Amino acid sequence: MMSLEKIAPLLFLFMWSSGAFFVKTGLEFSSVWSFLALRSLGSFCLVLSILFFSDIRTNLKHSLSRNDILMLCLNGLLFQVLYQSFYFLSIHYALAIGLVALILGIQPLITPLFSREKITIKALILLVIAFVGLFISLFGSKDFSSFNWTGLLFAFLAVLSITLGSTYQKKIDVHPAISALVQNAFASIIFLIISLCNGWHVE
Questions:
Q1: Directed axis angle between helix 19-26 and helix 84-92, to 10°?
Q2: 157-196 burial, b if ≥16 CB within 10 A, otherwise e?
Q3: For residue 184, what are the CA distances in angstroms to 22, 91, 112, 137, 173?
Q4: pLDDT in the model for residue 40
Q5: Which residue intervals of the chain are DSSP H helices?
């Protein structure tokens, strides 16, 4: 069997690092809600295929209670529905990707505050250094040309959603791959309904 732990970090690294580029490009050829529906369906199929070739699938039917599914759906609402919606909308309203990345970069700094975690001075200094490094790299690329208050509002709502989602997820004792499967299935249903009600648009 293929070890999920060996390939998952590379897959998630690719998805997160390429996210803003694909969102900006994709929104040129589709509506926000149609793109989000395709994104969720694609993620669901990807995670399902990974589970199919791993040994985790044997425990899938017996590892989830009804309460687990409800908690995962709530977490999916924060992580996959609200966060992704606000993130896509901030770019859709032409907020510079550099600004979006900078605002989202504060998430690791504020998550410990929401979850009331004890953070060491060393860890805090490292987080601040990382944030300053992000600011310097984005400032150097001069990707701050486009600004509007609507996009800025959506960017901050995206940070709030992912921060609350990160805090809530720590209460869920489910394998990350199974969690991603349920969350993406939930998000796919929500976005398909919204996109069909608003009109499907993909070129």
A1: 60
A2: bbbbbbbbbbbbbeeeebeebbbbbbbbbbbbbbbbebbe
A3: 18, 21, 25, 32, 17
A4: 92
A5: 4-17, 19-26, 32-52, 60-63, 66-76, 84-92, 97-104, 107-115, 121-141, 149-169, 176-198
- Residue-averaged pLDDT of the chain: 80
Please state, in angstroms and rounded to a whole number, the distance separating the CA atoms of residues 27 and 87: 12
Give, rounded to a whole angstrom, the gap between the first and last alpha carbons of the chain: 38
Neighbouring residues of 147: CB distance < 8 A, sequence distance ≥ 6:
95, 96, 99
Query: For 49-67, what is each residue's pLDDT tens digit?
Result: 888 877 665 555 556 778 8
Identify the CA nearest to 7 among candidates 177, 178, 203, 197: 177
Sort residue 116 into left (φ over 0), alpha (ψ -120 to 50) or beta.
left
Query: Do 168 and 115 contact (CB within 8 A), yes or no?
Result: no
Beta-bridge partners for 202: 30
Task: Return the amino acid letter for 62.
Answer: H
Vertex 199, ends 22 and 42: CA angle to 5°? 35
45 vs 119, residue with greater confidence: 45
In this structure, the number of other CB atoms found within 10 A of the CB of residue 53 comes to 13
